[in-house]
Write a structure and sequence with these properties.
mainly alpha, two-stranded antiparallel sheet, 8 helices
Length: 187
């Protein structure tokens, strides 16, 4: 679970961990590095990957401390009144053992993970509208996909996107209008 963002000085490339065999029957962590200009990777793609990581960090930190119940708040106030000047600490436990229930015997925790998982590309749960949008995006050119991501999904301005894509703001607007027309037409 990520709780720290990548340093700004390290954001020119994207690193992610993978598990590789160590030759002794185990695994070790190695890092793959994605660089702009290799295999069709652009700086925009690298920025998008870091933006997704930043969002994950935000959610992990936010959800790592759930809101206190009224009873917990009352207990905290009582403790602080009894211990003036001391800091009240609360241990938040987000482990699978805690969620599944702590018992001395082995517990199958797969139901916890299964309930928390979600496959956005699971075809069984896709509405016709979502499938139509997927088809529209699949029919777009790479440039249209970049503009769609940056302008319509990330809500960036034409000037900022133009600088990222090395083109004019008018060109970005024209591509964006074409993308909107594709979405309205449904391919």
């Amino acid at each position: 679970m990520r709780v720290k963002k990548t340093k700004q000085s390290d954001r020119g490339v994207y690193r992610y961990p993978v598990q590789v065999e160590d030759g002794r029957g185990g695994y070790r962590t190695a890092y793959n590095v994605i660089k702009p200009g290799e295999d069709g990777i652009t700086e925009v793609m690298i920025k998008s990957l870091h933006a997704m990581d930043d969002h994950e960090v935000y959610l992990n930190v936010k959800n790592g401390h759930p809101p206190m119940t009224a009873e917990q708040k009352a207990a905290k106030k009582e403790w602080e009144d009894a211990h003036p000047g001391e800091k009240y600490t609360m241990n938040w436990n987000l482990s699978l053992d805690y969620i599944a229930g702590e018992d001395d015997e082995e517990v199958d925790k797969s139901h916890v993970l299964a309930g928390a998982s979600y496959d956005p590309f699971d075809e069984e749960d896709v509405s016709p509208e979502v499938q139509r949008l997927r088809d529209v995006v699949a029919a777009m050119t790479d440039r249209q996909k970049q503009v769609y991501q940056l302008v319509l999904l990330e809500e960036r301005g034409y000037t900022e996107v133009a600088k990222l894509l090395d083109c004019s703001p008018a060109n970005v607007k024209q591509i964006c209008n074409k993308v909107i027309a594709l979405i309205k037409a449904g391919v």
